[in-house]
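Good day; I would like, with your permission, to put a structural problem before you. What I wish to show you is a protein chain and, alongside it, a tokenised description of its three-dimensional fold. Here, with my thanks, is the record as I have it:
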Amino acid sequence: MLLESERYRRAAGGHPQTWLALGERLYGTLGMNYAQPRQARAALARAGRTILEVDGRYVAIDLEHRGRGAWLLVATRQTDRERAAVARTLRAALAA
């Protein structure tokens, strides 16, 4: 739900992308209470893999280290054209 509420912008590859700075504010928003930041990052990495398995709208969900302890969660979605093609394929398969 959090990823859907974010604003996405076109990245270099043409895919819509958003990023969230990892830290106490985000961890609190998500109800995370880990002793170490690396534990929270590991949990977010697992959640990202799960989202990719079950939600075809996303191309990638990555954690990126930006130096000096700064980390970002970067979510990349399919383009609208790709989503439309998937939807057409699904409708055709369900109609058959």
About this structure: The chain has a mean pLDDT of 90. The beta strands are 9-10, 16-21, 58-65, 71-77. The longest strand covers residues 58-65.
